[in-house]
Write a structure and sequence with these properties.
424 residues; alpha/beta; two-stranded antiparallel sheet
């Protein structure tokens, strides 16, 4: 363990050995990293643990620099554990380089089988092993977005490990398919586009100018990947955050230099489109919805039902956080895993991620923030789940977007803690 200090906090880096396949506890082991954060003036206090499950899938936990954001509120009451979910951050990586060593005879099949162990069910079992190593008591869990999905999985299969749960923008549909999710999500993204063009009406013309230029020329990102109209449309993933519409407006503000796509714009688009920081996000995004059915590149198929997202439609609509097959082909960090991605998309034996019967008799205190205009996690599905989990208290709010936990300076978490404690 390594311990160091930031303003107002003491941080300790921890590593844990866990099985790749929890059904084979004596088999291959991988490493999971987590960072403990405690208030400096409470470092020796016997505080309860709060496990933070990051959104994603496929991204490591935040790297704090003091008591910023929701941490400031959490550290009043808890010793926080920021988990780099398996395959992310400083945990054992799962990327094109590490996966290249698998399965000399049928590498793509071996890669897909390996990646199948990186969903919420495995993350929860990792958390349980870590909990038992750190404390003999149940701990509190905070799940943001995909981390909320993981929290509901935790409540389904290991509720004895949880003292209380807080979920922000992360109540999943318990029995919905990826097709169901995207049919709802495309409508939500269309509404965000309409709101953006109402806020910035001049952006419609600028977006069309960029799209027409990209359609007529072979424009490349700095990493060599093609910058197509469809790739440009994917910048709409930012529209679901509190400042996303403004960020998109500024992205569109100055895209040309001497009649060509400006270098600054190409670099900015590469930052939006590259999966170098989170390859698992692309590879397992649809799989995080899969229970007993194949996803078969759901976002790509369902998009055909929404003509407003056609590259030639007026105005040009941006897409959301959907993952398309061309993204795997285009991105240098994903391209070697295209066959594995196809195998995952066709896999139809995914185990269940939730247990509705167990959730119906839940006795763990749970409070959840449901964002009324959430572009990423459908409100309708979230409210069905809220009603299906016994005792869950839901706070439905239009005050924040999907990133409310991060941008509210602790207010969202404080309200959920108050709800669980009966103060609100």
């Amino acid at each position: 363990m390594t311990t160091f200090r930031h303003p107002g906090t003491v941080l300790t880096d921890r590593f844990f050995a866990v099985p790749l396949d929890h059904q084979r506890p004596d088999g291959e082991q991988i490493e999971v990293f987590a960072r403990e954060v405690v208030a400096a003036d409470k470092a020796d206090a016997g505080l309860p643990w709060l496990l933070f499950l990051q959104g994603g899938p496929g991204f490591g936990a935040q790297r704090p620099e003091g008591r910023e954001s929701w941490l400031n509120r959490a550290l009043d009451d808890y010793r926080v554990l920021l988990l780099d979910q398996r395959g992310t951050g400083r945990s054992s990586p799962a990327n094109r380089r590490t996966l290249a060593a698998l399965g000399s005879g049928a590498p793509a099949r071996a890669q897909a089988d390996y990646l199948a162990h990186f969903r919420a069910d495995s993350i929860v079992l990792d958390a349980e092993l870590i909990r038992r190593e750190l404390t003999g008591e149940p701990w509190s869990v905070l799940g943001q977005s995909f981390g909320g999905f993981c929290t509901v999985t935790y409540l389904s299969f290991a509720p004895h490990g949880i003292r209380e749960a807080f979920i922000t923008g992360g109540l999943p549909g318990l029995d919905v398919t990826a097709d169901d999710v995207y049919r709802h999500t495309y409508r939500a993204v269309a509404a965000k586009n309409a709101a953006h063009y109402q806020r910035y009406p001049g952006d419609a013309e600028r977006a069309r100018q960029i799209a027409d230029h990209l359609a007529a020329r072979d424009v490349r990102r700095p990493d060599g990947a093609p910058l197509t109209v469809e790739a440009f449309q994917s910048a709409g993933a930012m529209l679901g955050s509190s400042r996303g519409s403004h960020a998109l407006h500024y992205l569109l503000e100055n895209p040309f230099a001497d009649g060509e796509i400006a270098d600054a714009f190409r670099y900015a688009m590469m930052g939006e489109l590259s999966f170098a920081a989170g390859p698992l996000y692309a590879l397992l995004h649809e799989a995080c919805y899969a229970q007993g059915t194949a996803t078969r590149w759901s976002a790509q198929r369902i998009r055909a039902e929404f003509a407003e997202f056609d590259p030639g439609a007026e105005p040009l609509y941006f897409t959301g956080e959907m993952i398309y097959p061309w993204m795997i082909d285009a991105d240098p960090v994903l391209r070697p895993l295209r066959e594995a991605a196809d195998i995952l998309a066709e896999r139809d034996d995914w185990p269940p991620l939730y247990d509705p019967a167990r959730l119906a008799v839940n006795d763990v205190p749970v409070a959840a923030a449901v964002y009324y205009h959430d572009m990423y996690v459908d409100r309708e599905f979230s409210m069905r789940t809220a009603q299906a989990i016994r005792g869950l208290q839901a706070w439905v709010t239009s005050e924040y977007e999907h990133d409310g936990l991060r941008v509210s300076d602790g207010a969202v978490l404080d309200r959920l803690i108050g709800m669980v404690r009966g103060n609100i």
